[in-house]
Amino acid sequence: MCACPWDVRECLAPGVLDGDFVLFHDRHRVKFLKYLELRGVPPHDAEDIASDTFMALYRRREALRRAESPEAFAFKILRDALVDFWRRQGRRREHAAVLVDEGHAPDEVAGLETRLDLERLLACLPPRQAECLALFVLLDQDAAEIGRYLEIDASTVRSHLSDARRRFEEGGVR
């Protein structure tokens, strides 16, 4: 079941949510939260963005049902919500030095620095390669699942991952 602080089925009147939407929510919520946190969103903000995403999906549930790939449709809504969040905040992700000053443990800072290094490398890749590699490395998704989220074939995902690795190995990414 979901790890929500509350069970969404208890928050709404009976019959408001159908079983398919609840299952979709339960299946994808944690992945969406991990994706947001690995993109530099603080955990409390990640919860808000994920909630906003699922509210938008609920409002557009008929389009979600009709979508050829519901996962890709939902992931697009999530990415749009993330862009809106950064735009509203008018801020960039915090730098590691700021986190040290705020008392975060050094191992947290080392992990953040590694993620920031990876983000810089991803920024040098073509967008589709970067998305595939981020989902593969940061969320440990397989090619089939990445393909569902990005609405491309698993073989195309494997090709993007291979091309990205080759660019890293050849030093084509700086």
Please give a handful of descriptors for the protein shown:
174 residues, mainly alpha, 10 helices
Question: If helices are DSSP runs of H or I spanning 4 or more residues, what is the number of helices?
Answer: 10
Beta-strand content bin: under 5%
Shape designation: globular
Query: How would you spell out the order of helices and strands?
Result: HHHHHHHHHH
> Average pLDDT, to the nearest integer?
77
Cα-to-Cα separation, first versus last residue? 42 Å
Rg from C-alpha positions? 18 Å
Q: Give the number of DSSP strands.
A: 0
Question: What characterizes the major β-sheet?
Answer: none
* pLDDT < 50 runs, ≥5 residues: 6-16, 92-106
Q: Percent helix among the residues?
A: over 70%
Q: Structural class per helix/strand content? A: mainly alpha
